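Hello K.,

You asked for the raw outputs rather than the summary table, so here they are, unedited. I folded two proteins back to back in the same session to keep the settings identical. This is the first:
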Amino acid sequence: MSAPAPAYAKQQPINPVRSTADQLGGWVNYGLSIFWIFIAWSGFGIALGGLAASQKIENSRGLSYDWTIPANYPKLQSGRVYRFDWFTCFFQFVVVVIVSLAFISVVIRQSRPMLIGYLAVASLLTILSADRFYNVSHFFHGKYYTRTRCAFAGYVISATADLALIYMVGLEPSPPPEGYAV
């Protein structure tokens, strides 16, 4: 007769995380997250285009002090008015790259607190920039109005995607079945 198997041999196999979908709780959540990452990239591109066009206007003719104060812009010399908005656009780019790399690298579980923090800061900054462009658009007309509204729309889309990604990344997948090691 053979001896009974040792206790360590009776353990259940470890359930490894094989994909990002496993870390997000399933393929539906994964698909929705990929959709929101695409929307975040789109919002970044729209905001960048509108911001660049607005900066070109500001560089070519300067901004009037008559509208900067009512539009919540400080009295700055030409070339410095959109500095905060450029920082916000750059920060949004960095955050979307980090989130995309986390999805590609399958490290959502390990980087969840960091991703939620970065997305929260990015959504706050993009909301502030959207508000600034919404306020300044009322003082323009024609193509200037269209360009500032384009930047406004890009920042709103980016903020919406950031808030949706906070929800999607923050979802904890269901725990593994009883007996499986994590």
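The second followed immediately with the same parameters:
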Amino acid sequence: MSILKRDFYSRNTLEVAKELLGCKLNRKLNGRVYSGI
């Protein structure tokens, strides 16, 4: 798993969305980890 840099998201929304398809996204917030595909 690698952390995506801010500039990854600073592109065209459709390009970013296509590249995220099938990826597992994780978010750590207030000590809890949230995940989704």
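The mean pLDDT is 94.

Happy to rerun anything if the numbers look odd on your end.

Regards,
P.
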